[in-house]
Structure formats: structure tokens, C-alpha cells
Amino acid sequence: MAKYSRREFLRMGGAVAAGLGLGPSVVPGLAQGLQRIFERQRNVLWLQGMSCTGCSISLLNSDEPGPLEIVTQMMSMVFHSNLSAAQGKLAMEIIDKLIAEGKYYLVLEGAIAPKMPESCLLGGRPLTDILPTALQNAELILAAGSCAAFGGIPGAEGNPTGAMGLQEYMESKGMQTKGRLVNCPGCPVHPHTLVAVLAHAAGIGYPKVDPDLLTPDMICKHSVHDDCPRFHYWQKEVFAENFGDEGCLFKLGCLGPLSHSNCPQRQWNGGVNWCIRAGAPCIACTSKDFSKKRSFPFYRKGEQYHAVDYKEQDRGGKRK
Amino acid sequence: MSTTIAVSPVTRIEGHLAVHTETEEVDTGDTPIYRITEARCEGEMFRGLEQILRGRDPLDAQQITQRVCGVCPISHGIASVRAQEQAYGIKPSRNGRLLQNLIQGANYLQSHVLHFYHLAALDFVDVTAVLGYGGTDPTLKTVKAWVEGALARKEVFPAAPFLPRYECDYIKSADRNVTLVGHYVKALDLRRRCHEMAAVFGARLPHSTALIPGGCTQTPTLERVLAYTSRLKEVLSFIESTYIPDLIEAAAEFPQYFEIGGGYGNFLCYGVFDLDDSGNKFHRPGVVLDGKWEPLDVKQITEEVKHSSYVDIGARYPGEGDTQPQAGKPGAYSWIKAPRYKGQPMEVGALARIMVNYKAGDGGWVKKEVDGFCSSLNLSVDKLVSVLGRHVARGLESVWLAKQCFKWLEEIEVDTPATTDFTIPESGSGVGLTEAPRGALGHWLSIKDHHISNYQCVVPTTWNCSPRDAQGKPGPVEKALEGIEIKDPAQPIEMGRLVRSFDPCIACAVH
Fold this sequence. Notes:
Chain A is α/β, with parallel strands linked by helices and 320 residues long. Chain A has 12 helices and 7 strands. A 5-stranded parallel β-sheet of chain A has the order 2-1-3-6-7, sandwiched between helices. Chain A has a two-stranded antiparallel sheet with strand order 4-5. In chain A, a hairpin with a 2-residue loop joins strand 4 and strand 5 (125-126). Chain B has one domain (2-153, 170-510): Orthogonal Bundle (Cytochrome-c3 Hydrogenase, chain B). Chain B is 40% helix and 16% strand. The mean pLDDT of chain B is 96. The interface between A and B is large, with 91 and 106 residues.
């Protein structure tokens, strides 16, 4: 393994902290976390449920640490469907062997449909046959993205599969989630969220989470609205009436008050842009209710024509 | 005697796919080889996004449908905004069209680079060659130290996810392998850069929030244009100086893959990247059927589900289609439907775009470029209809598209909004046709009472990985697998190479 100096760990800790919008006080802790990860690489089993692979692609968009650093230095990605050289029977043997050995971090991307096991197979086997033991033997479980955390779009109203997130699935099986499962919502999950939670768990311990949502406080404490760069427009009641206008995006449908995420600080794709900066209303992709109801559309353009199931204050930003 | 050989699951593609084949033993006088006589592509994951879309506000569609696929979300977003624009009776503004092209173009480049280096290359490259590396490149030294360390510690899974793997006929030259490992790593940065380009105008990737009917919420400023341009220069330089030479090297190492895996040779292309408001496109639409070009007639498209796990309503035009799951249906072996054009299975993708445009009229600039490339390799153009040809097609397209993106950047009117105003009608319908990196993509939208009343997607891999139809005719990948020869039934690398050449995306195909 390549050796890193304490200075380099401090640099990386600083990069992670800056990416998360955290102050300098956490840098030594994160640096220590990263150092511990690099000294004892955790085995990671990354499974895909009813997913679009967007969260995996998002992980590859990570910078500081970049994807090579993550895969070769930060963890041992024992199996990942998009990256593994192994295929066919050999791939299934790796998965089975790792699950039997235990002591790994399990990352699930995508939702699960226990009522329709045929809707998601891996090597011909229902994922819901593999998951119970995989969850039981995992040291830590990460729900990567809103599908794995809360069911996401596959679990939206009118879905034919009964798709749900990991928390609901584990609780229905009587499995313990507290202290074991971290929900990392987002559609897709932001790569920094995954990196920070992995670093924290391996180096410092299970992160502080919302007691009900199991989302990490270091990412999800404040709403997008709270830290929005257009907040001054909201205060002055200057609202964008059409897409592309200056002003607060609330009347176009912005759900910043309902989305608990630090997007305003870390932005996306190496910090080149993010939704509100681009004039795009936040669609609350980190919210438990993301996309769930037909009568609660992302945008407000149509609300004059059809019944909607919200009042003004429902869009206004209550926690949870 | 027939031997069953399977790759289940097929990794290093998008999504959940299994391939099962029947083979016959071929006596070679030495060790026997196994020739595929029939194949089945099994799509193993279903979400039901088409049902979820019903009853929703039509504007939700470009967000929901981007989640069909995290690798090509932009193409779904574009298909959806095209369908909506038709239903709303609008066209994108000039800037809107340009920004949509630039966002989609950047995602094409991301997808092609990802596919060649990160999904397909490990079928050809021997990663363990880095153990013998004696040079000074810091990245390669890191990779070498990592593999050495993992092996020395006798980890249970050393150097995962690159090992274990099938042990077979990888590239032999150690230097060549080491160089390609370096390019694998470099390509990780490059594909990330492509997503940064897409985010410059699209807000973020995957799943752009800035993409809307009529254009894009991001107003292009000089700062935005420069942010895109500087990254595009870096990407084009990589494509020309690394990606294309690597393709040529691969062709020299594995020339036999120009000879196999052609399949039906029927191609479909919807056309993509609007060059103006009057329907001229960068890649023109069309069809190649039985070797002959013909214009695209959308009404000839039907979907069948005899061998798919849905309630059978016969062959239907997608606009009148339906998706009712029937898990465990007798005779069904896939969640993928079977789309057909004039009743025929069609291949879609970069190769299809190239073959359709090559055979259209005088072939235009595509013919010139392809002829030039093929003659430099001393290759006849028909050899492109093969495993390697599909890789070459993606590479050539990447060069052309990256160059075209510079032209679109020049056409932008800075500080002018990229939007077009619209209202959502009480009722209407629209068909959004575009090309995803993986091929022809169509969204069919119907609106009633200001809500979506029906939404059907026919997706590239639905075409390519389709199961048999009602006539029992295999899908394009199934057909292309027939005749492929496998040396070691326990390590059927040849199947993986063939299937991956189509760049399958199963979340897309089923949705």
C-alpha cells in the first residue's frame, strides 16, 4: 500500500471538510478517520437493487478523493457490479464468500420489493434471498441514494412492485437499524456524502444521525432553503415567475425548504454548478417524500389546472 | 451433445442481465471448442416507471424518466422534453437547443469513455502486468504498490474489484497492458470532466434538474461557456491522442473480433442533435433493412411481450401500448419487451447511427470519415458490423461529437435566457425521439385533464437485448451470440465480449 504522510491526510481531511461545508475544527478528526481507513481497508460489498446505477456513476464523480483513491486506497471494493472484472458464476461466488466471512460494509443502491421477488434478480437469484444474511453479517450498512433509503421513485405512488427502502425492509424483518444503518439520500446520492460517511464510520465511528430518518447530521442538518444563495430574494419577496428568471424559485416549485442537504455549500460535479445556481428549482431529492405523491408535483406550473394535495405551508419547510 | 453455458450475472454493464446459451461441441482434433447455437438474454429487474408516470403532472416526466437510467439520464430527459414540447406546441429557443445539445453531447462523451475503459477493457487488458512495472509514473506506481500489498497481505480478495477474473487470452505485451491500465485511470478523470461539462449547463449530473421543455433553466454566460470550453479541449485531446490509438491497438491485437458477432445487420436510428429549427440533425434518422437504406416510419414500430413477463396484448404501436407485469408468466424469460420494426428485430447504437448515415443518400460527411478511417486500417467497411466495429463506432462518434460541441459553443448568444415559455394543455400527445449513447430512444406521451394518461418508453437496450418475439425470432444480441465460439465453458469470456460490445443498459431496457 502506498504510504501517506500525516500532512497528506490533513490535506484530504481538509478537502472532505471543505466539500461538506464543515469548519476547520473537524479536519483533524476526519484526517484521523481517513488514516484509519487507509491503514485497515474495509471490505465493501456494493449491491444494486431496483436502481438506475446513477448513484454508482455519482460515486465515480467524486474528487478529492477521486475514484481511484477510493477503490484502491480507501476501501477494498470486493464486489461492485459495474466495476468488477469477475462475471457470471465467479461473481456470485465472491458475493457468497464475502457474506459468509462477514466484517464488511454493505452498500445498497436501489429499492427492494419483497412482495415481488422476481422484480430484482442477481445471477438468477432474487435479491431478497441474498439480502437477509448480507444485512445480518454486515458491520455497517449504507443506503446509497433515495431509492435505498426511502424507496425513491420505484416506491412512488402507483408503483406495481411494492418497492421500499432498506429501513422499512429491515424493520419489517425485525432487524436492528439504529447504530447500523446510515441513510444517505439523494437522487443520486452526492459522492461526498458517501465518502464522508464511510470515513466517519471507519475512523471515528457511527455518525450522529437524525433519530427517525437515520440521515447523517453532518450532511442533512440544514435545509437547502436555510443556506440558499437566493435566500435574500425570499426575504425581499422577489420571486421568479418563469424559468430562467432571477429571484427566489419558490413559486416555480422549489422544494428547498423540504430538502435537508448541504448542496448550497458543496455544490455538484466538482463545484461547477448545482440546481439553484442553474436556476433549477430544488426537487427535494433527499427528502423522504421525494417524488412519492402524484398530487405533489415537482413544479407549480400546473397547479392552476389540477387539484394538488398541499397547502402553501406544506412547501414551506417543516423538519421531516 | 449440447452444453449449456451461462454468464449470470453479466457484470460491467448497466443493470441486471443474465445470458444463457446452448452450445455444440466442435471437434478441432485437439481441445474441443463450443459454438453457440442459441442464446437467451434475460432482463432481471423491473420497476414499472411507466405506471408510476400515469396520473402525474406532465412536467414531472423529464425528472422521473431521467431515473430510467443513471448512465444516460440526459437522453431520457431530452426524449421527454421533446414529447412534451410536441404536446405543448413549442420549440426550444436557439440557446435552449444549443444547451440541450451541449448537455447531451457531454453525456455521450462520458458514456463512451466509461464504456470502453471501465466496462469493456477488462475483457482484454491484463491488469496484473502492473506488477512488473519499473517506471516512474506516480499513478502506475500507486496501482502497483496497491496490488503488491494486497497480494503480500494474502487478503481474501486481493486487488478487488480487478481480481479475480477469468484467466484467458488477455493482451500479451506487458508494456501495452501497463499503458492501458494507466489509460483506465486517466479515463476516470476524463469521464468525470465530461460530467462537469454537462453540469455547467445542466446544473448537475447524473439527473440534470436544469433540463426543461423549451430549453434549459441555466442562462449561458461567458463564464459558463469558458468553463465548458476548457474541459472540452482536454476531453477532445484525450479522445484523439489516447482513446482512438487504443482502439486501433485493440483492433491489431484482436483482429478476429472484426469477423464475428455481426448479428442481423439491420439498423435503426431516430436521429439526434438538432442543428436548427427545421429538423436538420447531426445524425440523420433512417433505417437499414436487408442491407438497404429507407426513411424512418415511426408507425412501423411495435412492441410484443410473448416471452416477456407482461400481460400479452399482442403487437402494439408504443403510443397505444401498456405495461402490466405478470411475474412468472409461462414461456416468459425476461422483463425486457420485444420491439420490432416492420416485424424485424433491429440493432441500435453508435454503429447503427453510422451505418444508417453511411447508407443514406451520398453518405455525406459520415461516409467520408468512415471510409478514411477504414482505409487507414486497411479494413473494409462491412467489417464494422462486428464486435470490434461497435467499439470503433463509439470512438469515431466521440471525435466527431467533441468537435461539433465547439461549434455549438460558438453559436451561443451569451446572457440570453435559454428558455421558452409554455402552458400545459388540457389534452394532447407527443412523441419524443432521440438517440441515447446506446441507440434509438423514444418516449410516447398522452395527456388528459392536464395529467399524464399514458407514457411508454422504448429504449435502446429494449431493442438490442430483446427476447424472442411472437414468431420466435431472437433479439439482436441473442442472434449475434449465435456462432460465437467459446474455448473454456467455465470462463466464457467470448460471450462477455460480444454482449458488452452492445453496451447494454438493463435498467433502461426494462424501466
